[in-house]
Each structure stands twice: as structure tokens, then as C-alpha cells.
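Late entry, evening session. Most of the bench is empty. Finally got around to the prediction I had been postponing all week. Sequence below, unchanged from the version circulated by S.P.
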Amino acid sequence: MFVTQIINSICQELFNKITILMKWEDLKFYKTINKDELKFAKKEIEKIVFSNLSDFGFKKYGRELIRISNDVFHVIHLDTRGSWMGASTSLKTKIGIVSIYDTDFFIEKHELTGCKKLEQIIPTIKNYYQITQEYILFADFISRKLIENIIPYFKQFENSKDVLSEPDRFKVDNLTELIERNQNLILYCRLANHQNKEVLDILEKKMQLAIKLNSQEKIMYIESLMKEIQTSNWRNIDNILQGNKERVLDKLKLK
């Protein structure tokens, strides 16, 4: 038994040294992973990517890597969840920017704001990849691509003013699946900079949705915010935003 453990340890060490010299994208074929190995492979991919990105200030929160940059969060979401059809055998990577004053994503579990598919930022790669037996090499591949391309992308948007300086990158009038996410990002970036452009229109749409869902708490929140905006009471608006920020940081344990 002891001899077997030594042999296995040596084999694993040799495997690790070999994989350092190999690149996932250079492989000619990939082996299908067994169902019973899939769960472990997913955890290993997440662990390796999180470890590689930690040097850039990212912290792990669930399946997300998050980093505070002034008044916004940079978010990398590694999605290996399944659906009602069963466990997923693929990895989907999404990139997002979230206002530090927005409680919807971290607290209310809404969709990621300022969301971009990986392939929108790195056209040479896909948004979905099948998880195979070469998952360790794959984790290294994804890590390298995130460091080479996504870190510079986030560098363009270090705060809410940067987001507002390029409104075409986060349109709120696009009839796409991302519309609500962009609306929230622009809403809180505008409020953080005492700008009321687009704000009331965005809040009107959010109000319609809240009424449709019969969400009384959300209706009251939007009504109070609209009242302060209509009177340009930025002191009260700042207080509302500060309260949101404290809730988010407390949830993430980043205080």
C-alpha cells in the first residue's frame, strides 16, 4: 500500500512537470471526461483560475472572481452550472462591471450588470468550452486569456466616470437580453456622479417591472429615489447610495 502511494505520487509529479511544457490550445484531440470525474474537474478549474487571478487583486465569491476598483466591481463569472436537463459538461465565462452601490447582483441575486460574453472581448476564443480530461491544461489556458485580455479590458473601466465616458459600450436602449443589466450599471454610475440624464427613464422601466412582479419593497425604494432625483436632493441620494454600498460590502465581507 505504501509503495503504491509513493508510485502514484511520483507519477503525479511527473505529470505536473509535463503539463507545464504543454498548452491546451496546442493539443490535437481531447478526451471525453467521465461523468463521475466531472464535479471534481469543475472544482479544480475554478481553484486554478482563482489562484492565478488572485495576484491581480481578485477575491473568490461563490463562482465569481471580484475586485473592487474605486466605485465599481470587476467581476469574472465562471459558470459550470447545469439546468433542468442535468449537469453541464461545459464552462461558460462572463465578464461584468457592477456599481458598488447596486444591491441587485450580490444581494438580490439578479443577473450580472455590464455583462459581456468572453468572445465579445476576445474574438479568437469561444464563450463555451467543453470540459474534458485535459481540464488542468484548460484551466491554465483560460487563466492566461483572462490575464492577457480581460485585465486590460477592466483597466479601461476603473470607476463610474470611465463607464460613463464610453456610453456606447453599455447601451441602455438595445433590445437585447443584456438591456436590464446595462440599465442598472448606467443608473448607479449616473447617480454616483450627480447626473440625472437617463435616470428617470431607467427608473420608470424598473418601476413597471416592480409593479408587474408586485414587489412592494422595490416599488417603495424606486419611489423614494425618484422623489429625490426630481428635486435634485443629492445629499439624500448620496445617503441612499452609501446605505446600498454598506449592504453590499457587508454581504461580501469586504468592510
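Two things to note before I forget:
Residues 18-155 form one domain.
The chain has nine helices and six strands.
Will write this up properly tomorrow.
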